[in-house]
Amino acid sequence: MQWKLKHYEELTRDEVYELLRLRCEVFIVEQNCVYLDVDGEDRTAWHLLARDGQGKLCASLRALPRTEDEPMHFGRIVVRPDARGLGLGKELVRRGLDCARDVLGEPAVSIMAQAHLRGFYESLGFRAVSEPYDSTGILHIDMLWKAQ
Description:
The protein is α+β, with helices and mostly antiparallel strands. The protein has three helices and eight strands.
């Protein structure tokens, strides 16, 4: 797998298209969730991209910068359907956390996790900071990770 961390401004048109296509395929089509994926947040974000040996985008996450009130936020964490079951999701989040801490100097990261993935994120050091709630028809939970 080839890994790249790029700010939005560094992404090519083709990379933006690939990101949006993968997110649409998984979040809107596969999960049958109607929401506005193109929300204006990508322009301020860092994007971690994973490509296979043929150069095909397999996974990505979006890291929104910290604000005065909130830590860095990971979202749009996605693995291509045919690349699942190989530990790629765990590696994606681990590498994202490493980048947040070591490259971007972030001490904490928040996520809005789908509630059924709580254990997955807890295994990566996140802890729940809210009760489950409905977001776009899917149960979510807010979680927080702090650098050691």
